[in-house]
């Protein structure tokens, strides 16, 4: 006897979205929007500053209404060099982390 076999398809409620900032073709900043997790690649305040400014410009142009960052580089966002770059670019400090509104 032959039967019809259907593959079970699992649909997620919302796909993961992320923003990646490239500087000279190299990744410098990654932000996963759904979890508020950021990762900085490379070192130096100038590089972090340019990446943060590019991220803020992209969010304000066509990103979600609110972007919150509560984790960075594997830990809490506070105490990382990324905080000063994001605040200088336009993020606001809140108890949970950093928030940017369009």
Write the layout of secondary structure elements.
Blueprint: E1 18-23, E2 26-32, E3 37-40, H1 45-62, E4 66-69, E5 71-72, E6 75-76, H2 82-89, E7 92-94, E8 97-101
Parallel strand pairs: 3-5
Antiparallel strand pairs: 1-2, 2-3, 4-8, 5-6, 7-8
Helix pairs in contact: 1-2
What can you see in these coordinates?
A five-stranded mixed beta sheet has the order 1-2-3-5-6, covered by helices on one side. A hairpin with a 4-residue loop joins strand 2 (26-32) and strand 3 (37-40). The N and C termini lie far apart (60 Å). The chain is globular. It is of the alpha+beta class and 102 residues long. Helix 1 packs across helix 2. Helix content is 25%, strand content 32%.
Would you kindly provide a brief summary of this structure?
The chain is an alpha+beta fold and 102 residues long. It is built from two helices and eight strands.
Descriptive key words:
2 helices, 3-stranded antiparallel sheet, alpha+beta, 8 strands, 102 residues
Q: What is the structural class? A: alpha+beta
Dominant shape: globular
Q: What is the chains' assembly state?
A: single chain
Structural Rg: 18 Å
Largest sheet, spatial ordering of strands: 1-2-3-5-6
Please trace the helix and strand order, writing H or E for each element: EEEHEEEHEE
Question: Helix fraction?
Answer: 25-40%
Largest sheet: 5 strands, mixed
């Amino acid at each position: 006897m032959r039967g019809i076999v259907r593959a079970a398809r699992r649909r997620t409620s919302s796909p993961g979205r992320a923003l990646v900032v490239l500087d000279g073709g190299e990744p410098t900043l990654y932000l996963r929007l759904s979890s508020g997790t950021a990762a900085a690649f490379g070192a130096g305040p100038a590089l972090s500053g340019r990446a943060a400014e590019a991220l803020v410009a992209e969010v304000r142009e066509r990103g979600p209404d609110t972007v919150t960052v509560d984790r960075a580089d594997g830990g809490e966002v506070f105490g990382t060099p990324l905080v000063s770059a994001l605040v200088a670019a336009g993020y606001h400090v809140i108890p949970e982390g950093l928030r940017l509104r369009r």
